Amino acid sequence: MAEVGKNIKKIRKEKNLTQDDLAERLYCTRQTISNYENGKSEPNIALLVEIAKVLEVEVNDLIYGPKKKENRRGQKIRSAAAFAAACTLLVAIEILTPFAKQYGWKNFEIAPLYLLRYVLRPLVLALFGWGIAEAAEAFAGIRLWEGRTERTVKAVRIVFCIAAVILTAFAVLALWTAVDLTYIWWLSERMLRVQGSFDSSAVPHLMPGQLQNLFLRLNVFGRLGGGALFLGAALGFCNVKKEVR
């Protein structure tokens, strides 16, 4: 409880109150306040509540110490930078996607389209979601999970971790598929130049058939919910990590 006395003294001085002023408002002697602040005696819970009311703070501030003022300037800069970067990248992806489609139709090479749509886009949406969470807290003081119990926080973290693992696996498979398709395209071009023909069944894939089937199944999931879940996961992680004391 010695820390309580130090906190009382610190907050009292911040309020520009003397020991006599505080004692007068609490209807006790100055020596009583001095004993509390020096750790010679301990105020009971009821008196702590009264001291908190007089000093216009919360009881937790007397027990644990006053809350540190958060510097939101850096957070505002981070959120603005995340928004700017995400918006720029999203615009770039949308502009490049039609060209990637045309390139794929012309050259039978869809690896660039896979990279844009299934690797870069979800990651940029995650950055966008992180920017939303940072901006919500920095500019409006919103913390989605503040005040929740530890069990709730853990449950939410598990849900977002599962979503992040699934989507990360999808991004890895998409990247692997893009590399595999690029390899097949390069090998087919080489076989056409050397042999004058190309047999796709004779070409060894870098990606096993089972993983190809898994990617095709996840393809619909990633197209419909990948971006949204990446956005939600980033938003959730950013707020869940800020637990209440």
Features:
single chain; 2 domains; about 0% strand; mainly alpha; 434 Repressor (Amino-terminal Domain); rod-shaped
Provide a descriptive summary of the structure in words.
This protein has 245 residues and is mainly alpha-helical. It folds into two domains: 2-64, Orthogonal Bundle (434 Repressor (Amino-terminal Domain)), CATH 1.10.260; 73-240, no CATH class. It is built from nine helices and no strands. The chain has helices spanning 2-14, 19-26, 30-38, 45-55, 59-64, 73-107, 111-140, 150-195, 209-240. The radius of gyration is 30 Å and the shape is rod-shaped. The model has no long low-confidence stretch (mean pLDDT 73).
Element layout with pairings:
Elements: H1 2-14, H2 19-26, H3 30-38, H4 45-55, H5 59-64, H6 73-107, H7 111-140, H8 150-195, H9 209-240
Helix pairs in contact: 1-3, 2-3, 6-7, 7-8, 7-9, 8-9
* C-alpha Rg (nearest Å): 30 Å
Helices, by number, come to: 9
Q: Mean of residue pLDDT?
A: 73
- Tell me the total number of β-strands: 0
Strand content: under 5%
Distance between the termini: 18 Å
